[in-house]
C-alpha cells in the first residue's frame, strides 16, 4: 500500500491503517519526542499524545510538502503545548546573557553523552536549544511557538550554551585527571 493510500485510509479512521502509520513513523517521531522530553517515559507519553493529535488532524494534510515534515511539526507542537500548559516559561525574567560558543572535541565526547547533558538542561533552556540548534527554528518562530518574547528565546539559548559549556569543561577536566 502506498503512503498516500495509507494516509487516505487513516482519514477514514481505519484502525489498521493507523497502526501501519504508527509502525512506519513511530521510531522517527520518538527520537523527536526524546529530544524535547525530560526522560524516556515522558517521551513515550509525548509520542502517544502526538499520534492522537496526528490521527485527529490527518484530514488537514493536503499532500502539499513532506508528510514526514508535517508529522514532525505536529509532534514538536504537541510537546511544546505540554510545556506551555505547565507554565515552564512564566518564571523567566533574565537579562540578556552573553552568547557563548561551545567547543566540542569529538574525540573526548560521545554523542550519547552530549544528548544526555542536553536532556538534563532545565526545560526552558533545553526546548529553546533544541528548536534553535538542532531543528533550525528562528528566535521569532520559537517565541511564537512557546508564547515567549524573542529576547527570552535568545537569553534561554545563551544560558543553555553556558550550562553546556560548563558541563563539558567539567567533564573534560575530570577525564584528563583520570588519564594522569
TrEMBL record:
The keyword Transcription regulation applies. Pfam families: Sigma70_r2, Sigma70_r4_2. The keyword Nucleotidyltransferase does not apply. GO terms for molecular function: DNA binding; sigma factor activity. Residues 21-87 form the RNA polymerase sigma-70 region domain. Keywords: Sigma factor, Transcription, Transcription regulation. Residues 112-162 form the RNA polymerase sigma factor 70 region 4 type domain. One of its GO terms (biological process) is DNA-templated transcription initiation. Belongs to the sigma-70 factor family. ECF subfamily. PANTHER family: RNA POLYMERASE ECF-TYPE SIGMA FACTO, RNA POLYMERASE SIGMA-70 FACTOR ECF SUBFAMILY. This is RNA polymerase ECF-type sigma factor.
Amino acid at each position: 500500500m502506498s503512503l498516500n493510500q495509507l494516509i487516505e485510509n487513516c482519514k477514514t479512521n481505519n484502525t489498521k491503517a493507523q497502526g501501519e502509520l504508527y509502525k512506519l513513523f513511530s521510531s522517527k517521531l520518538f527520537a523527536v519526542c526524546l529530544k524535547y522530553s525530560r526522560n524516556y517515559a515522558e517521551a513515550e507519553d509525548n509520542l502517544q499524545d502526538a499520534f492522537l493529535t496526528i490521527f485527529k488532524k490527518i484530514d488537514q494534510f493536503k499532500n502539499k510538502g513532506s508528510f514526514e515534515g508535517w508529522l514532525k511539526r505536529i509532534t514538536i507542537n504537541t510537546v511544546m503545548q505540554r510545556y506551555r500548559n505547565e507554565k515552564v516559561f512564566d518564571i523567566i525574567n533574565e537579562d540578556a546573557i552573553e552568547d557563548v560558543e561551545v567547543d566540542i572535541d569529538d574525540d573526548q565526547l560521545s554523542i550519547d553523552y552530549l544528548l544526555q547533558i542536553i536532556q538534563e538542561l532545565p526545560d526552558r533552556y533545553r526546548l529553546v536549544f533544541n528548536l534553535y540548534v538542532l531543528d533550525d527554528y528562528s528566535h521569532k518562530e520559537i517565541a511564537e511557538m512557546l508564547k515567549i518574547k524573542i529576547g527570552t528565546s535568545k537569553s534561554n539559548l545563551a544560558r543553555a550554551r553556558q550550562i553546556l559549556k560548563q558541563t563539558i569543561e567539567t567533564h573534560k577536566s575530570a577525564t584528563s585527571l583520570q588519564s594522569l
